[in-house]
Amino acid sequence: MAGKIVTITIASVFIGVGINGFIIPSHLINGGVWGISLLLSYLLGWKLAIIFTFLNVPIYFIAIYYDMNLFFYGLIGTFISALMISLLSPLNGMFHFPFLISICLGGIFVGTGAGLMLRIHASPGGLDLLALMLSKIFSLNVGVIILMIDTFIILSGAVIFKQTVFLYSLVIVTLVGLIALLFTSIKSITIYRY
Questions:
Q1: pTM for the whole structure
Q2: CA 36 → CA 4, 69, 85, 140, 193, distances in Å?
Q3: How far apart are the C-alpha atoms of 75 and 22, rounded to whole Å?
Q4: Longest dimension (CA), the chain
C-alpha cells in the first residue's frame, strides 16, 4: 500500500506540473474531469480544485459499488492530485517555451502522471476511474477508453472556445491518451509490484 501511495504522489506531481506549468498558462483544456473542470473554471472563474472535487462525487458513488479497491485508490489519487495542483499553482506562467513545445510538454507530463496511476490500478479521479471500470467490463485497454472520452470533452470545448484552442487541446489529449496507453499496455514496465 505504501508503494502505491508513493507512486500516486509522484504521478500527481507530474499532473500538477503539466496542468499548472503548461496547460493553464496556454488557456487550453485537458480531458477527463480535469478538462471539464478547466472549462468551468475558465467560464465561471471558480477554483479548479473545488470544481474537480465536486464533479468526482457521482463517479465515486458508482465506484464504491463496483470495486472497493478502485474506489479507495481513486479517492487517494483524486485527493493527492487536487492537492498537488493547488500546491503547484505557482508554476503558472513560470515556464516560457514556444507554444507548441508547451502543449506537448503539458500532454507528456499529464500523460505520464495518469499512466503511472493507471498502471497500478489507481486513478487521478473522475473519468479515469470510470475508464478503469469500463475497461474491466468491456475488456478494452483503459488508454483507448480515456482517449475516446477525452476527445468528446475536447469536442465540447470546441463549441465554447476558438478553433485553435480545440486543435491544440486535441494535441494534449492525444499525447495523454497515447502515453497512458503505453503505460497500461506494455507489460515490462514495473512501477510497483503488488
A1: 0.81
A2: 27, 25, 15, 23, 33
A3: 25
A4: 45
